[in-house]
Task: structure prediction
Amino acid sequence: MKQYKEARKYTSPVIQQALNNISQSSFTTVERSMLIASRIDDVLTAKRWTQKLLADKMQKRPSEISKWLSGNHNFTLETIAQIENYLGVRLLIVPDNEVVMA
Amino acid sequence: MNFEIVELIDFSGQKAGVYSIVLENTNTTLFDQFINENTGQQQEALDSILSKLILIGHKTGAKEQFFKLNEGNLGDGICALYDSPDKKLRLYCIRYGNNTIVIGGGGAKEVRTLQEDPKLKQENYLLRAISKIITEAIKNQDITWDLSDTKLIGNLIFDNNETI
Result:
């Protein structure tokens, strides 16, 4: 008789401590990079474009597109604007009416 | 080799299930060991990898471009999560599509090929052996997994394997 059970749920003090050590700014940097990479990938999939096709259209090397999609890239605003223009979608939305209280 | 697959609740989410391995006669996972070994000397890269795992589980899924692929044998799904190409830290994983990963150990890669570093080779080959056993279990339907779900379901305690 085969058993169909979910895996045992696991956490540990080591993992908890390591997560507590991550600074918010460090996490946010990784988050921005990965979410932009993921968004580009989703748009390429929706348009049925390969990374090579985007590279050709933007006159970039395929390795550069691959770097953008790796989730490690530190994008400049200029690069984001260029990618947005070629893909025809927004990658970054900046709230224009958010008030930060002192 | 006997082991248990456990789900890491701090990382698993709606986009991907994140699992690790508890080896026989140990109480903690290969991933705990990886954290212990790299806290301090590889802190920045470690923080980045931990952040990535949270995001993979909850927001993006395990998209293949986030990993260095083909770090094992042909078709065994072994890949590496890393901070950035110029950083050295590698965390070896088995990737099952975009929605499930099993993470093992790793270390700082200071050599051209992992086979040149005994520690990396050991971590990588251990995961290759585990991948082979899991693949066999999926084939035999002792474990079920499909592309639409983030869960590995089945007999996730392997206690009848010979030493590899």
User: Anything to note?
Assistant: The mean pLDDT of chain A is 93. Chain A has five helices and two strands. Strands of chain A lie at 5-6, 8-10.
